[in-house]
Amino acid sequence: MTQVSEIMQTMDYGPSTEDSTAAHNWLVCRGSFGHFINGAFTAPGETFETRDPSTGEVLAQVSQGSDADIAAAVKAAREAQVGWAALSGTERAKYLYALARHVQKRERFLSVLETLDNGKPIREARDIDVPLVARHLYHHAGWAELRDTRFLSHAPLGVCGQIIPWNFPLLMLAWKIAPALAAGNTVVLKPAEYTPLTALAFAEICQEVGLPAGVVNIVTGDGATGAALVASDVDKIAFTGSTEVGRGIAAALAGTGRKLTLELGGKSPFVVMEDADLDAAVEGVVDSIWFNQGQVCCAGSRILVAESVAERFETLLRVRMARLRVGAPLDKSTDIGAIVDPVQKARILSICRAATEAGAELVGGQPQEGCFIAPGYLRNIAPANPGMSHEIFGPIATLSTFRTADEAVELANNTRYGLAGSVWSESATVATDLAARIKAGVVWINGANMFDAAAPFGGYRESGYGREGGAAGMLDYLAEPLVKAAPEAAPKSPVAVTEGTGPAGQGIDRTAKLYYGGAQKRPDAGAMYAVPGGLAPLGSRKDIRNAVEAATKAGKWAAMGGHARAQVLFYVAENLSARAAEFAARTSGAEVEAAIARAFHYAAWADKFDGATVQAKPGHLVTVIPEPMGVVGIACPNSQPLAGFLSLVLPAIAMGNAVVAIPAQDDPLAVTDLYQVFDTSDLPGGVVNIVTGPRADLAVHLAAHDEVAGFWHAGDPQELAAIGRAGTGNLKPVWAVPSRDWTGPQAQGEVFLRHATRTKTIWLPYGALPAGSGSAAY
User: In terms of DSSP bridges, do strands 734-736 and 186-190 run parallel, antiparallel, or are they unpaired?
Assistant: First the structure.
């Protein structure tokens, strides 16, 4: 028998297993599960097994959703949506509040069920996941009440299709269902095939609170079921999962007009500066990558340590890693639970093999019996090693060093992803400088993996787009204010001519040039085409490439700050006013007046489109900052060439972006003359770049460019499918700008600024942390 004195020497925990009787009894009582459609469970159809990954025990038989099941669920949601949206905000808030209360009443049951189905330690499910589920429901009960006053002129989208992964089954459900219902939408949700049980338990809670039938529908199944949901008649798809699947969904939805939110993979940097609290940083690694088996897309799996402290940090890391307990997830003393499925375990091990074969050294990380892998990290790893580029999604980190802050930022951003990052430094100046320069949607300072319903979450680049949480997340579940449509002239086929000549009977007054990098350029191929009053360059793919290259070099424009950008835009308005008669002769007085008004309007907004500090986790300043996209591609309308061009270009550059714009195909000459206005207004070269020619072809080339971070299209909707598919290479958002009168008041406003920015959420410790507050706990 173990003596007390021995326990005091080792400080080992004894077993403390959570009782799973209630969850198992619930499973036995339910038997096989059907889908939850129109407020009731269907009879089970063709089923598949869901297992406890820690033991291999079959937990339940769950129905495999078919196309017909998805169609029935979407039909029920469509029929319920009108009545749900017609409820007052208070009534919708009452239902969300009731859901939150019932989740809290069943916290222990839901925590155990989540652990059985997913394999994560009970401590994570009990202390983090389920409390955050209730938090999201409570938070969005508030948004339901405030929707019509906070989001004026916005309306529900309709029916939302939602597909969630297996790493946070119940929390991801709440992230998606809560804002959708608060906004007045109804949902069809497909949980991951590995972890459907808590979603089905949530369906029972929907019944318990009397949620109207059809408002929430849950269809279980594998990837084929998800594909059927993507192809169904829904108004939005919200997907969390792999980048590869997300890219396929974006391609499938291109040109359909349906809204899309993607929260995809990550390879997040975990930067430890030389002045960091190393003990705290090591604990941050444990929270970020090991306590959750690394099965979280924002895990700080790329540890970057200042060379001067790397040896000490690694010593502490190894000691801490050796003390972590891998074992039964229901044991409250377990630190690292089970990998969700043998398939995922095999994938993790294969990436580790590839990494070591490429020269890395694996410390720890050994496979154990069943679905378990010990924590570990890859050291002496080169930037091109597969372990550095692939999302391992397991309890295996990488560790490399840097010498300067600039090198740390360069290494942190050396990835195709941009979901999250973590910075560790005792200097607020150093930490916030790095947080600003790391290209990620969320950055934690001296912490890791903190979430809250008030704090928007989402990524940059191939980590997806759209946000979940906070006001930004609500806007992604609301339709933008309607605009009065205006007819858009279809462009004519350009007729190629030689400079100095033109079609018979057409007088050639002048010849325009392309404009990029702050200078006029001849088109690469030298070809021109006839337009009213002269010839315009027939831009090519190479011209697009040159213009984008010029735009990427205009980084100092964003660094100037809003006030300096405002001064330049006021100067643009002044110089355009001085030449109003000249531009009116080429277009119209109304267009010139509108163009001048746009310059004044966005000059006013340049330093006033602010972020916000939101009330989230106690002891932290959580700041949501609108950041410029980078390089924005714009295909301008063919009608009202001057007003349409500046109504789109000016909000983009006001927010700090550089643009490559394709002006009106049939009448671009007034726009090409703007280079004189820009040059005399101190606009830096490369901020605005103009490539004329066939809009449809040039737009596809521009959308396909990996350095273009976002694309706006105002024109023929039939062009959107090809543009959207071209943009999936680096998963850029494509905004289909509705046609409108570009001289009217609906051609300006905050909606343009929102599309010109993406939110970045920065968590900064503030004051003394509450007792018992861990970096990952709510």
Answer: unpaired
